[in-house]
Amino acid sequence: MAVLLDNYDPESFYDELFLDDGKPRSHAASLINWMQNLSIAELQQHQETAQISLFNMGVTFNVYSDDRGVEKIFPFDIIPRIVSAQDWEYLETGLKQRIRALNLFLGDIYDRQLIVKDGKIPADVIYSAKGFLKPCMGIKPPAGVWCHVTGTDLVRDRDGQWYVLEDNLRVPSGISYVLENRRVMKSTFPEIFQTMAIQPVDDYPSHLLETLLNLAPSQLPEPTVVVLTPGIYNSAYFEHSFLAQQMGVELVEGRDLVVVDGYLQMKTTKGLRRVDVVYRRVDDDFIDPQVFRPESLLGVPGLVEVYRQGRVALANAPGTGVADDKVIYAYVPDMIRYYLGEQPILSNVPTYLCWQDKDREFVLQNLDKLVVKAANESGGYGMLVGVKSTQAEREEFAQRIKDSPRNYIAQPTLSLSRVPTLIEDQIEGRHVDLRPYILHRGEEIHVHPGGLTRVALRKGSLVVNSSQGGGSKDTWVLRK
Are 289 and 215 in the same domain? Predict the structure, then answer.
């Protein structure tokens, strides 16, 4: 193992554990020195044991387009990603700023729309966004909080600078993998957790429950909280059931709920029981067939009206998807300046908006160098990585852009940072991103230490999504 680590080559990328000269970064030195005592065979055994343990705990995901089976193992790599205390303090401050601005944007855009009237964001950009829902106009969520749970995707470039890659305010998933990855790592390598000052992550369910309970009317002595899931065939069903179990609340589907006497009620063996807070993991379009998609069997007829009347709280609030639009994303720095009067702490990736003539012309001429993304796709779908594309693929995307310019953005190809990763019988660098989870409780915003580090397991790949061959690593945030 010592030989493999000694020969590990960070190449020209920013490596999260090693400096350019191959020496460990100061905050990673304890881990690297400890790993030197392991053989490659021992590391492989630990990796296999950890993967089996995760599978036995039910840590799986679904790929809708794969007909070989519903459940798949979420690949896990045994070598963790470490974030220094200094880096984390910077990220935490920047994320809180960003969430405050996004929340103010949502409250504004579904009310007075001052940011549009003042010319900071074109009206057409808002109204053409797939996630902008007119039925949500005038809604006043409890304490003015729209985005109670956010997963913000971050990346690090070759120079070590952090960038926000995208915002996820609708129903961000992945926190269950964070918690289970840590549980496995602590049982596999208990000694290293005794010697390194690693911030814990296992209290997330209690923080989430506190966030949800905070939405209930103060006069209720024992408010009822439920997790609303689309059901067992949803790709994140494991997470829905896991979080419900960890919080000690009911996991329900739409068919378990009904609106009676102006309130949301849960069917139980003892009759109907009022529900006060819903942590919904069902997309906006499906939560109420009377308001959105009439064919939906996943939601509850009348739910939105009960919500509008303030008789039930929903987290996240419906309509938050407008902020996930990748065209809207380009305007978040302007939102921070407009609503907060501050300069953005975290930078966006430079973004070309294909609906603008000048940007579109540049994108079409440089498809071989850029990453093109559809405004409302996720999971690595609807994307062209120019440097990895064929001429035919570029021609196809050029036509897509011409046909629907509002639906596409483009960004430069970043050299994502890497982390040493166990690949068969050797250690190789693989590209990673990071999704921290942020809980918004009104006056208080809690950024959970760490987050989901997704790793592109395919050599040279920049796509970290599990549905595209990616896996995950435990993320260690160090204490000061």
Answer: yes
- Contact, 88 vs 81, CB < 8 A? no
Band the pLDDT of 376: cuts 50, 70, 90.
confident
Range of the domain at 225: 203-315
Tell me how far apart the alpha carbons of residues 259 and 301 are, in angstroms, rounded to a whole number. 7
Q: How far is CA 63 from CA 74, 144, 168, 236, in A?
A: 11, 35, 19, 10
Q: What's the CA gap between 339 and 184, in Å, rounded?
A: 42
Token reading at 304: 């939105």
- Between CA 272 and CA 265 the distance in angstroms is 6
Is 343 in contact with 332 (CB distance < 8 Å)?
no
In the chain the first and final C-alpha atoms are separated, in Å, by 30
- The model's confidence at residue 73, banded by pLDDT at 50, 70 and 90, is confident
What is the identity of the amino acid at 13?
F
Q: Which helix (H) or strand (E) holds 93?
A: helix 85-109
- Please indicate, yes or no, whether residues 223 and 309 belong to a single structural domain of this protein: yes
Cα distances (Å, whole numbers) of residue 118 to 137, 265, 441:
19, 42, 29
pLDDT in tens, 244-282: 999 999 999 999 999 999 999 999 999 999 999 999 999
How many alpha carbons lie under 13 Å from residue 15 in its C-beta half-sphere?
Answer: 22
Token pair of 240, please? Answer: 């829905």
- Does some domain include residue 431? no
Query: Angle CA(125)–CA(361)–CA(407) in degrees, nearest 5?
Result: 30
Q: Which candidate, 319, 337, 326, places its Cα nearest to that of 118?
A: 337
Among 377, 368, 358, residue whose Cα is nearest residue 397: 368
> Where is the domain boundary, 397, 412, 427?
412
CA distances 254 to 40, 185, 267, 291, 369, Å, are: 49, 36, 11, 15, 45
**Rounded to an integer, what is the distance from CA 28 to the centroid of its chain?**
25
Asked whether 278 and 228 are in contact (CB, 8 A), the reply is yes
Task: Determine the residue type at 69.
Answer: G
Does the structure show a pLDDT above 90 at 337?
A: yes
Q: Show the tokens assigned to 23.
A: 């020496």
Decide if 450 contacts 177 (C-beta within 8 A). Answer: no
Number of H helices, E strands in the chain: 15, 23
Domain count, the chain: 2
Is residue 64, in this structure, part of any structural domain at all? no
Picking from 374, 373, 375, 376, the residue whose alpha carbon sits closest to that of residue 385 is 373
What pLDDT, in 10s, does the model give residues 284-316? Answer: 999 999 999 999 999 999 999 999 999 999 999
Please indicate, yes or no, whether residues 214 and 291 belong to a single structural domain of this protein: yes
